Amino acid sequence: MDVIQAIKERRSINFFETGKEISDEKVRELLELANLSPSSFNLQPWKVIVVKNPGRKKILRQCAFNQPKVDEASVVLIMIADPKGVEENIDRMLDSWQELGYMKPEMRETYMGMANNLYGTEDSLRRKFFAVKNTSLFAMNLMIAAKGLGLETHPMDGFDEDCIKKEFNIPADKIIPILVAVGYLKSGITLLPRAFRRKIDEFARFE
Ligand SMILES: Cc1cc2nc3c(=O)[nH]c(=O)nc-3n(C[C@H](O)[C@H](O)[C@H](O)COP(=O)(O)O)c2cc1C
């Protein structure tokens, strides 16, 4: 499937085929594709919990206001935005830029300073935005990639974040922007047509 078709055909699926497994290899393939997403300074501040155990999905469903798709989908991905992604990844990232010739060694400190200036201190609002925007791009790429792999998805922000953090042992400083349910469309279900989209001129300005 080409990317235009994947974008056109992706839908948020409410009815998943229950009991249909996705192998860990397939989930890894999906994560590998999503992992090619762009990110600020290539800092990749995302973490993912792959929830596939039926009992764990039930607990997640309770945290997600009892949305049935949470335990009906084959797996649900808890997307975690990590504000500490800067500290965690910057050294490896700059090493790779240096090795690959993107950056001369003498520029390392300058780049380090730039990243710290751009993304603020660890607990700043700027840092939270940094983590959430990059993790959201990761999630979007994952949904398009899923379509290409023959899978369906449903993004969700209808959940109690504190409940998920407690049940899944996620540290308080992390942010959960979105859950993504992944699976297969339940057989016999026909999707309603895609709902309203605004006209381009309502939201785009050409200058
Ligand atoms: C960030 C985000 C959060 C969403 N949260 C929920 C949710 O909690 N429950 C739900 O049923 N749909 C949720 N949706 C799905 C939207 O309702 C859906 O994307 C929208 O209606 C457009 O439909 P489409 O994705 O099929 O084009 C969410 C979508 C996004 C992008």
Short recap of the structure:
This protein has 207 residues and is an alpha+beta fold. The protein has helices spanning 3-9, 24-34, 54-63, 69-72, 85-100, 108-119, 125-148, 161-167, 200-203; strands at 46-51, 75-81, 152-156, 175-183. It has a domain at 3-39 and 46-80 and 121-186: NADH Oxidase (3-Layer(aba) Sandwich).
Task: Describe the secondary-structure layout.
Elements: H1 3-9, H2 24-34, E1 46-51, H3 54-63, H4 69-72, E2 75-81, H5 85-100, H6 108-119, H7 125-148, E3 152-156, H8 161-167, E4 175-183, H9 200-203
Helix pairs in contact: 1-7, 2-7, 5-6
Bound molecules: flavin mononucleotide.
Residues 11-12, 67, 155-158, 178, 194-195 line the site of flavin mononucleotide.
CATH topology of the domain at 3-39 and 46-80 and 121-186: NADH Oxidase
CATH superfamily of the domain at 3-39 and 46-80 and 121-186: NADH Oxidase
Low-confidence parts, pLDDT < 50 over ≥5 residues?
none
How many beta-strand elements?
A: 4
Q: Which shape, going by the Cα principal axes?
A: globular
N- to C-terminal distance: 34 Å
Q: Whole-number average pLDDT?
A: 96
Bound molecules: flavin mononucleotide
Derived structural class:
alpha+beta
How big a fraction of the residues is strand?
Answer: 5-15%
Share in helix: 40-55%
Major beta sheet, specifics? 4 strands, antiparallel
CATH class descriptor name of the domain at 3-39 and 46-80 and 121-186 = Alpha Beta
How does CATH name the architecture of the domain at 3-39 and 46-80 and 121-186?
3-Layer(aba) Sandwich
Please state the CA-atom Rg, rounded to the nearest Å: 19 Å
> So how many helices?
9
Output the strand order for the largest sheet. 1-2-4-3
Order of helices and strands: HHEHHEHHHEHEH
